[in-house]
Amino acid sequence: MLTFRAATPSDLQAIMVAENGAHAYPWSEKVMQRYLLKPDCVWLLEQDGQHLGHAVVTLIAGEAELLMMTVAPEFQGQGFGRRLLEHVLQHLRATGAECMFLEVRESNAPAIALYEGIGFGENGRRRGYYPAPGGSEDALLYSMDLSDG
Ligand SMILES: CC(C)(COP(=O)(O)OP(=O)(O)OC[C@H]1O[C@@H](n2cnc3c(N)ncnc32)[C@H](O)[C@@H]1OP(=O)(O)O)[C@@H](O)C(=O)NCCC(=O)NCCS
């Protein structure tokens, strides 16, 4: 059974296994731990208790930001990223979010396809924002209006 729930500090190890496996530049345990202490900030998608993926979201004055989203490598490409993001959006709408922002590496085709497919629109670029092999890489900025249902 698929379950969507808010994470607790005791989920740290499962989150870090997925995080370290999925990202060339994963978040540190320390940073993740800090977000796990904030209520309703880290969200999990699980299947029969197994960690599939997680998303880190902040909501301030109606503005939501997707800070991180990860599906464990062995579960990628099976629709779980879309399910996780749909759940996050549903939760945010229900709690009064009006819009959502995110940044993504311009080389991250799977993530860009997911964000655009779900309704995010590109509206900016931060040059050299991310570290990359031999230098840096631009971030593309995306947003979506959540107030229109
Ligand atoms: C990006 C990521 C979260 C997507 O999750 P996923 O479970 O693999 O994606 P899904 O199977 O739900 O696919 C959703 C959409 O993404 C796109 N997509 C997924 N994998 C893709 C790939 N390898 N190439 C191109 N598009 C892809 C498709 O458009 C798909 O749309 P569809 O539902 O119409 O087929 C996941 O691949 C991941 O964790 N990647 C590593 C970490 C990362 O880059 N996170 C995002 C930035 S923080």
Describe what you observe in this structure.
- The protein is α+β, with helices and mostly antiparallel strands and 149 residues long.
- It has a single domain (2-145), classed as Gcn5-related N-acetyltransferase (GNAT) (Aminopeptidase, 3-Layer(aba) Sandwich).
- It has 4 helices and 7 strands, in the order βααβββαβαββ.
- Strands 1-2-3-4-5-7-6 form a 7-stranded mixed β-sheet.
- The protein is globular, with a radius of gyration of 15 Å.
- The chain starts with a strand and ends with a strand.
- The chain binds coenzyme A (COA).
- Coenzyme A (COA) is lined by residues 22-23, 68-71, 76-82, 104, 108-111, 113-114, 117.
Concise structural overview:
By secondary structure, the protein is an alpha+beta fold.
Q: What percentage of the residues does DSSP assign to strands (E)?
A: 35-45%
User: Which CATH architecture?
Assistant: 3-Layer(aba) Sandwich
Are there runs of 5+ residues with pLDDT below 50, and where?
none
User: Strand order, biggest sheet?
Assistant: 1-2-3-4-5-7-6
Overall residue-averaged pLDDT value:
97
What kind of sheet is the major sheet?
7 strands, mixed
The tally of beta strands, per DSSP, is 7
